[in-house]
Amino acid sequence: MQGVWTPDQIRAAEQRLFTRTPEPAVMRRAAFAVAVQTAQVLTEQTGGVAGRRVVLLVGGGNNGGDALWAGAFLRRRGAAVTAVLLSPDKAHPAGLTALRRARGRIVEATGASPDTAGIGAAAADAVEGADAVVDGIVGLAARGPLRPVAAELVRRVTAPIVAVDLPSGVDPVTGAVEGAAVQAEVTVTFGGRKPCHVLGRAAVRSGDVQLVDIGLDDDLGEPELRVLEAADVGERWPVPRPEDDKYSQGVIGVAAGSATYPGAAVLAAGAAVRTTSGMVRYAGPAADVVRAHWPEVIATGSITDAGRVQAWAVGPGIGTGSSGRDVMLHVLRSGHPVCADADAITLLAKDPSLWDAREPDAPLVLTPHAGEFTRLSGDELGIDRVGAAREVAARYDAVVLLKGNTTVIAAPDGRVLVNDSHHAWPSTAGSGDVLTGMIGALLASGVDAWEACGYASHVHSRAAALAARGTGGHGVGAPIGASALLAGVPEAIRTVRAAALA
Ligand SMILES: NC(=O)C1=CN([C@@H]2O[C@H](COP(=O)(O)OP(=O)(O)OC[C@H]3O[C@@H](n4cnc5c(N)ncnc54)[C@H](OP(=O)(O)O)[C@@H]3O)[C@@H](O)[C@H]2O)[C@@H](O)CC1
Ligand SMILES: [K+]
Q: Record-annotated residues binding (6S)-NADPHX (predicted)?
């Protein structure tokens, strides 16, 4: 599990660290890691470091200081280093001295012979001719998108960019990208990941995030967010133990779909079949279609005949009328864990009396997309998706899985997991029905509700990428539908289990 800390938490931890290690030493350690990473990028792209042209984009704070020191280290490897100063009066003095001593070149962004965009000739030549660029424009103190001169310089870069701490122009806390921002090949960050490395468009802008230990670990405290790694998921994914039988692994009940729209039922029940080896029951008007697709599912037409289950996955395609309401009353009164999606969420939002049917201590998972979330919360979803999910989770005493390119999973006690797969292959109709069935199956097998959401969401996005044979948003792959995603689930489970056993 990876932790993610806010800039305020990082700064507070740094203050404690500086009582043991002087600040300049910490900065040099950070900068050295930037230099090593830049050398690696240069080697990969050009076959070496000596003689290659490195440009440092240097803002007026310590982020720029890191870049200047990194430039001084890169001079030792024989790179030709040019620092482009965006705020010459504020550029980090010790960093400047170090680069000058190492015989790096220093120019001003808006220096002599400016072009029509106001960029000085030396800066323009350097940026356009670079083999690699180090982004030290702004770091933890960033506010808003890149300012015009920085934006213009970044626009002209064609070389790979190594971002110091975070890609300049993104919001460090919310991950919002509201204007010009750096697209990094690699981001070298210090002490702990920040929200922008794992949230939304900023996570994509960060590229490959390399975390460098600067001695902060003991001072960081509880992380603001957590990210599951493949091995975390594989280690806890339920598989049959030698002593298990079909009942001991959990029986899940799926209440989804309708006679007119049986697809949601087929997908949710199929997802449950592929998630665990326990038994799957289906209750609803699509029983015949479900049986035809999944002979292993025990299907019945009415929720009242469903038989015993250990958890319910409810909602997709049940409708928001009186029969949907009856289904909700039944599953909420059962006292078992419930994963409520789609129409189930709309029903809960429009009829608050349904909450009274819920057993107070039974775990409840709500898996809204943005529109359903707004119905639940009563407010438009803004940039701070983490804060919003946390608030709704606390209000309803439920785990809230807020769907989006970054999935945010908030527990009622404030813990938050995020799943950012850096791709959008799961964005296809029916994909949510699959996720609901997966979460329900994990709940039935006894996995904690917050963790179940994290595991299911990780495997779900992995299954989509496997099915699409795709990687990043602009990488290879072909479009998939939810049935293909579902078919990818077993292989996705195999890969996370292999990671855990490795
Ligand atoms: N603490 C430590 O010892 C360690 C810290 N480390 C490093 O320090 C970094 C934090 O440094 P920092 O606090 O000096 O601020 P930093 O992010 O460089 O910003 C500088 C100035 O930029 C400006 N600015 C704001 N928004 C902007 C925008 N959108 N576009 C353009 N400019 C913008 C704003 O100034 P303004 O112009 O508004 O007066 C702001 O004050 C951290 O990320 C890490 O790299 C590492 O060395 C490890 C040890
Ligand atoms: K930066």
A: 62-66, 139-145, 165, 264, 317, 369, 433
Residue 157 has pLDDT above 80, yes or no: yes
Question: Which residue among 20, 62, 187 is best mutated to probe the pocket of ligand 1, counting the most ligand atoms within 8 A of its Cβ?
Answer: 62
Pairing of strands 406-410, 416-420: antiparallel
Does the beta carbon of 60 sit less than 6 angstroms from any atom of ligand 1?
yes
Domain boundaries defined on the chain: 2-227, 240-501
Percentage helix, strand, coil for the chain under 3-state DSSP, each rounded to 5: 45, 15, 40
Residue 146 alpha carbon to ligand 1 centre in Å: 13
Ligand 2 centroid to Cα of residue 165, in Å, is: 6
Decide whether any atom of ligand 1 lies within 6 Å of the 146 Cβ: yes
ipTM: 0.96
Ion ligand 2 neighbours (CB, 5 A) are 135, 163-164, 168
User: Given this model, what pLDDT does residue 169 score?
Assistant: 98
User: Where is the binding site for (6S)-NADPHX, in residues?
Assistant: 62-66, 139-145, 165, 264, 317, 369, 433
How far apart are the C-alpha atoms of 330 and 283, rounded to whole Å?
A: 11
Among residues 149, 134, 191, which one has the least CA distance to residue 16? 191
Question: pLDDT (tens digit, 9 = 90+) per residue, 39-58?
Answer: 999 999 999 999 999 999 99
Confidence of residue 246 (pLDDT cuts 50, 70, 90): confident
pLDDT by residue (tens digit) across 96-109? 999 999 999 999 99
The average confidence (pLDDT) of the chain is 96
Which fold, 240-501?
UDP-N-acetylmuramoyl-L-alanine:D-glutamate ligase (3.40.1190)
CATH number of 2-227: 3.40.50.10260
0.90 exceeded by the pTM?
A: yes
The ligand whose atoms approach the alpha carbon of 61 most closely is 1
